[in-house]
Design goal:
Number of helices: 6
Mean pLDDT: 91
Strand content: 5-15%
Number of strands: 5
Distance between the termini: 8 Å
CATH topology: Rossmann fold
Largest sheet: 5 strands, parallel
CATH architecture: 3-Layer(aba) Sandwich
Oligomer: single chain
Low-confidence stretches: 44-49
Shape: globular
Order of helices and strands: EHEHHHEHEHE
Radius of gyration: 14 Å
Structural class: alpha/beta
Strand order of the largest sheet: 2-1-3-4-5
Amino acid sequence: MKIVICGSMKVSVKMLEVRDELQKFGHEVVLPRHTQEYAEMKTSDHIHNESVKNKINNDLIRDYYEKIKASDAILVVNCDLNGVTGYVGGNSFLEMGFAHVLNKKIFLLNQIPQTSFKDELIAMQPVVLKGDLKFIK
């Protein structure tokens, strides 16, 4: 299965771990641009987040839409961040919406977070993996 990984760049190290495990199961994996570079910084410092300028100049939102379109599924690496268990940020929510509209399978690594858009997350019917990638089929 071709799986696009989504999530905050603050969890880039975890994204690489997830990629490696998925590849062991025989999946093809697509990561956000520059994931390796963010992971090598070994920091979740907000100064290293992708800037608005970078997103515009590199057309990152449309680029990832096209990657999702060419995939079988997305996996949101929704770790605990910003005081939220199973955090799903704006970009990941948008990417989940793309996947939903494109009839792609949506996986969440961890539980659905308590957020103002929880109903919308539930309505997209993601498969919640509870941290176990073996449930991806």
